[in-house]
Amino acid sequence: MKLSNATLDTLPASIRRPTYDRSRLTPGIVHIGLGNFHRAHQAWYLHRLFEMGLNHDWAIVGAGVRPYDAQMREKMAAQDFLTTLIELAPDSRSAEVTGAMIDYLPIEEGNGPLIAQMADPEIRIVALTVTEGGYYIDPVTKGFDAAHPDIQHDATNPSAPRTAFGAMVAALRLRRDRGIGPFTGQSCDNLQGNGKILRQTVVSLARLSDPDLAEWIDTNCTFPNSMVDCIVPATGPNELALVRELGIEDAVPVTHENFRQWVIEDDFCAGRPDWDRVGATFSDRVHDFETMKIRILNGGHQVISDAGEVLGVETISGCMEHPLIAGLFRKVEVEEIVPHVAPVPGMVPEAYVELIARRFSNPAIVDTTRRVAFDGSSRHPGFILPSVRDGLAKGIPVEGLALVSAAWARYCTGVREDGSAVAPNDPFWETLQPRAEAARTNPQIWLENRALYGDLADEPRFAEAFGKWLRQIHAEGLEAALRTYLER
């Protein structure tokens, strides 16, 4: 059955579908970056509110800023912006159709439709999932990268910007000039202090073309920090086949695990939905929740995914079945990451490691090591290296984290140990791959990538351990290095 408003009542009885009247929903949120994660996470919370008869003036208008977003828009529009969510528990599965999104803006050069929609008084939140590497952060200073060509374009063409942030600035200029008032900018990406980073990007970009506007934004707009969590694989042939098995023709279904968490600062200048009524947590301790999740879960993903890729293990659950990779995960987490993580209400770090191990081990979630290993140039500095720096400062071991970095360097040579080629899997692959090759004989060359490692190349305890592991990996193989580490 082709998914659409008209066919909702004829879907199989086992599939939950919207009980609210979607024609009566009105928009309150523009969400930029309509990937699988957003539809399984933030949009789901809103859908649940609508099911309770609440907040029907907070529907989502989807948006994108890149030409490839037009294909997603076309697919979503053909099915009335509905999404089939398939929850995959280790021993069961269930499905529901969600309808929190009611439109998807046309993708146009200069982002005119997006700017106009965000300038509409009905819009009170502009949310984003644009990946960790999408915020124009200078890799060395961690400040705003004003020299990036996209940013330079937007600074000189503020009415026809290229980036999502330039479009936000243009819309906020219209709102200020029309007396409409500000909106909340809400990052939903895996970044420590994601709201603070979003504020930095938007305000800094505005300052390049209109300092007065930048000051108005900084004073009036809010950018709440948040922690988001749900494992959501990419959609491929398996997922498309699964939704067909359920009796639904959905061009863009989403599979996800049976776990969600959302912790948010309650800092919304123009109001917000009652997300706390459906399981979200509003807290002034978002930083602690973020640290636990980013260090243990996101860091744990990097611990196992690069090793899995090098050894030809295709899925995250497969990595957890591999005794050496699973051993690496547990030893590094307990000895080198947990000591830097504070407990949060209801959870201590050691218990969180066990929770993550169970989630990673779920065989129903076909989450590929390639997906998780993507963009290591953003994820290692964001998820792994902070624990390295803390370990060096506190005198806590960093041997396992150095091994994780060595496995990433080995992965970036572009060839697995079975001889198969690794297709480019990082925005900076063309820079990383030759450096990884050169590091075969001189490991220090890898660490001299100061944009990623900063002064860690000069820290003997980390640099010497990294060099030792990388030499062993190239001489004897990754499994030999993992055994050596686990026997310590």
From TrEMBL:
Taxonomically, the superkingdom here is Bacteria
User: TM spans, by residue?
Assistant: none
Record keywords:
Oxidoreductase
Locate the Mannitol dehydrogenase C-terminal domain: which residues? 286-472
> Is Oxidoreductase found in the keyword set?
yes
Enumerate the Pfam families for this protein. Answer: Mannitol_dh, Mannitol_dh_C
Q: Which residues form the Mannitol dehydrogenase N-terminal domain?
A: 28-276
InterPro entries (UniProt xref): 6-PGluconate_DH-like_C_sf, 6PGD_dom2, Mannitol_DH, Mannitol_DH/Oxidoreductase, Mannitol_DH_C, Mannitol_DH_N, NAD(P)-bd_dom_sf
Q: Which PANTHER family match?
A: MANNITOL DEHYDROGENASE 2-RELATED, MANNITOL DEHYDROGENASE DSF1-RELATED
Q: What is this protein called?
A: Mannitol dehydrogenase family protein
